[in-house]
Amino acid sequence: MIDSHCHLADEVFAPDLEAVIGRAREAGVDRALVILSAGDAKESVQAERVEALWPDVRFAIGVHPHHAHQFSGQPDRAADVVRTQFAQTSRACAVGEIGLDYHYDFSPRAVQQDVFRAQVRAARELRRPVVIHTREADDDTIAILREEGGGELTGVLHCFTGGPSLARAGLDLGFYLSLAGIITFPKAAELRETVRAVPVDRLLAETDSPFLAPVPHRGQRNEPSHVARVVEALAALHGLAADDLGRRAAANFHTLFGP
Q1: CA-to-CA distance for 195 and 163, rounded, in angstroms?
Q2: pLDDT at residue 23 in the model
Q3: Residue 85 has pLDDT above 90, yes or no
Q4: Are the C-beta atoms of residues 226 and 23 closer than 8 Å to each other?
Q5: d(CA 254, CA 99)
Q6: Domain that residue 12 falls in
Q7: Is the pLDDT of residue 117 over 90?
Q8: Dihedral, CA atoms, 31, 255, 5, 148, nearest 10 degrees?
Q9: Residue 198 — φ and ψ, nearest 5°?
């Protein structure tokens, strides 16, 4: 299994990082994609610890829409920060997470859009996939991916919670959909019906840890070992054994992000 999206460089994991990674490996998690906030010095230091303890991890680097306001009027500077850190991170394989968040609006929407566009262009230049965050901004997110992606961009809609229209738009762009612990929540019946129609060869599994712990761990700190519960839920939706779904999702990860 692979956890296709987690925040192991978050300070919440600092006290027991080695134990968290140990539990992931014991659960059969071979690799994780660790998301780094571009320009965050503390996360960069923690990322070095993660890499030392788990050499098979990979990293994605980007300016989250919550932080886009830091680059107001200078969206290209956000892309430059990503490029610089990308060049300094040997196991970096993707630009992200990037996108739009109109739920919290921690950054003005126009600023979010400008910073998002600049990073999509940077990903094209780097020839790397993108990890997309979209919340209550689906139309604008897809429009920017179409306009700036140029038909060349690959990536994943992370922590997918959308409906059939967003799923189809993402699939039509050639993107993958990554499911997190929400897929196990009792009230996520509509999401499960949407995911049931998504081809298995376009699915990824993630934790988004330390957030969104799946049932039966809901309410606790999430961690990569819990991706097994997401894999089990996806397997049930597609009538597959969990081991089979885990292998197929891992193959999808390697197709998108590389070995």
Answers
A1: 9
A2: 98
A3: yes
A4: no
A5: 22
A6: 2-257
A7: yes
A8: 150
A9: -85, 130
The single-letter DSSP state of residue 39 is: T
Amino acid letter at 60? A
The pair of three-digit structure tokens given for residue 73, joined into one six-digit string: 């009027």
Number of structural domains (the chain) is 1
Q: Residue 58's beta-bridge partner residues?
A: 33
The separation between CA 169 and the C-alpha centre of its own chain, rounded to angstroms, equals 18
**Model pLDDT for residues 205-228, shown as the tens digit of each residue:** 999 999 999 999 999 999 999 999
d(CA 81, CA 101): 21
Whether 97 contacts 64, CB under 8 Å: yes
Give the whole-angstrom CA distance, residue 95 versus residue 225. Answer: 24
- 31 forms beta bridges with 2
Length of the chain: 259
What pLDDT does 151 receive?
87
Whole-number mean pLDDT of the chain?
97
Q: What confidence tens digit (pLDDT) does each residue in 69-79 have? A: 999 999 999 99
Among 35, 88, 25, 16, which residue's Cα sits nearest to residue 209? Answer: 35
CA–CA distances in Å: residue 109 to residues 5, 38, 81, 112, 135: 25, 20, 21, 5, 12
Dihedral sign computed on CA atoms, order 198, 200, 201, 204: positive
- What tens digit of pLDDT does each residue of 145-195 get? 999 998 899 999 999 999 999 999 999 999 999 999 999 999 999 999 999
Q: What is the CATH number of the domain that holds 209?
A: 3.20.20.140
Backbone torsion region of residue 184, taken as left when φ is above 0, otherwise alpha when ψ lies between -120 and 50, otherwise beta = alpha
